[in-house]
Amino acid sequence: MPDTQRSLHLRTWLVYAVMIASTVLVFLWIDSRGAHLEAPDPVGDATFGAGSQAARVDVLTHVLIALVVILVSARLLGNLFRRLHQPPVIGEVIAGIALGPSLLGRIAPEAQAFLLPQSVAPYLGILAQVGVILFMFVVGLELDPRLLRKRTHATVAISHASIIAPFLLGAAFALVLYPRFSSSDVPFTAFALFLGVSMSVTAFPVLARILTDRRLQGTRLGVIALTCAAVDDVTAWCLLAFVIGVTQSQLDSALTTVALTIAYIAFMFVVVRPVLERWISKHDAAGLTPGFLSMIAVGLLLSALATELIGVHALFGAFLLGAMMQHDSRIVQQLRERIEGIVLALFLPAFFAFTGMRTEIGLVHGLDQWLVCGAIVLVASLGKFGGSFATARMTGLGWRDSAAVGILMNTRGLMELIVLNIGLDMKVLSPTLFAMLVIMAVITTIATTPILDRLRIADEPLAEPELAHSK
Predict the structure, then answer these.
(1) Confidence band (pLDDT; 50, 70, 90) for 377?
(2) Count of helices and strands (H, E) across the chain
(3) Cβ-based burial of 456 (10 A; exposed 0-12, middle 13-18, buried ≥19)
(4) pLDDT digits (tens, 9 = 90+) for 249-260
(5) Which residue, among 462, 425, 390, has the nearest Cα to 166 in the 3D structure?
(6) Which domains does the chain have, with CATH numbers?
(7) Is 23 in a helix, a strand, or coil?
(8) How far apart are CA 347 and CA 350, in angstroms?
């Protein structure tokens, strides 16, 4: 290995070591400052870490009516936003919010109570959780391992900076938000960790679809953005698994949860992945059969169950199993198409409606709270865009391409809503803060396409020079 390349690799590892050590030290300092803060006593029967308990009500008729209304609304607004050159998922998210107490509940409470009564919420919740598990499996199937194998120092640096910067800014902002929007039974450490993670997520599927719609997926910029988002996705979900383990456990059991999670990931790579490769190669020529589909469904449920029992969310197990499968095999592509259709058509609109029923924009009232909401959008965007943009510039990208990467990495969409719903279920996030963060997720995703249009990325050729440090 030439001396210059050896020196470059050594410098890269030293930079990463300093970056990770600095992140840990800064968060520990933030945590020490937050340990002395006091939050108000919890209101009602809210208990940190406990999920909501649903009453058992036979409401099949209302569930069917609700699903019809949800699917029609999601389709109409999704098509409208597609015509506005926005990702259809944004229209579906807004449709879910509009059917909840934020809009329909305000202008026609009787209609909202009939179409989406609270009695259907537990059933929509189950559909939503199943849908998210299936969706994360599809995200894993869509994750091209070649993007991770062929990553450069530049793309890894950009993706990690796009996580570390918003994570630290979000954790630091917790010092301001914790006394105002949390309660005394929520430990500051859990609150700060969750707020940091909620600022760090990038919606890899939405980003990929934006690039595809603009025919940028094969360009140098598109490959950089996709690679960064893929590394970001894997890192962010591992970080979320760690945060859930810490939040749900005491320190000693949290370390056990982390150790078991690492062991399970190693088991999936060392044992499950080779078995899947041989099995898929054996059945690839025959195509997708009911027997193959049934075995994958069993494996998906077992993997989701394993991570749930370990102490992290079931969706992590679904994502991990999907990532283990051969991305470009014929049978896996057929599997993805089969599952993706029903997930996008039925389960995700149910998830958006369930999120909308839990989102009360009216809880954000008064100029001071709207200023806080604006500050959340600013902090989230500054962390994601700023971290990505600055690192892209340092690695040799031009101003315009660096800005494009930063804007694309600031796309949150559905992935952010998944994280926020987990936080609300665990009572880490209050309903008011949940509503503010949902607004942030919608705004940052809507802003992506018009800003890219202003940058005119699709109309101009990309810069020729290669990324610095990428060889």
Answers:
(1) very high
(2) 22, 0
(3) exposed
(4) 655 566 777 788
(5) 390
(6) 56-455 (1.20.1530.20)
(7) helix
(8) 5
